[in-house]
């Protein structure tokens, strides 16, 4: 019931969130891990899909008691 693009986007966002919460990798390093050539493009993509920046997402999760692995 979903398009290939929507499926891939959802998987990228899920992996980005996992890396943001469970690693201490920088946003730039996470962007590279996920195949983005430019960290700015990753941040724009993340903000569009998750309604917040990657840094804001990480900060909120850590403030809510989610501990990095």
How are the SSEs ordered, and which strands pair?
Elements: H1 4-22, H2 27-33, H3 39-50, H4 54-63
Concise synopsis of the structure shown:
The chain has helices at residues 4-22, 27-33, 39-50, 54-63. It is mostly helical.
General description of the model:
- Helix content is 70%, strand content 0%.
- It contains four helices and no strands.
- Helix 1 (4-22) crosses helix 4 and helix 2 (27-33) crosses helix 3.
- The termini are far apart.
- The mean pLDDT is 95.
Radius of gyration: 12 Å
Look at the structure and give the mean pLDDT.
Answer: 95
Biggest sheet, in brief?
Answer: none
Order of helices and strands: HHHH
Tell me the β content.
under 5%
Tally of alpha and pi helices: 4
Low-confidence spans: none
Task: Tell me the total number of β-strands.
Answer: 0
Structural class: mainly alpha
N-C termini distance: 34 Å
Q: What percentage of residues falls in helices of 4 or more residues?
A: 55-70%
Shape: globular
Tag the structure with descriptive keywords:
69 residues; single chain; mainly alpha; 4 helices; globular
């Amino acid at each position: 019931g979903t398009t290939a693009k929507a499926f891939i986007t959802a998987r990228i966002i899920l992996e980005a969130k996992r890396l943001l919460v469970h690693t201490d990798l920088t946003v730039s390093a996470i962007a590279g891990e996920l195949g983005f050539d430019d960290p700015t493009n990753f941040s724009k993509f993340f903000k569009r899909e998750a309604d917040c920046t990657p840094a804001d997402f990480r900060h909120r999760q850590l403030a809510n008691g989610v501990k990095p692995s």
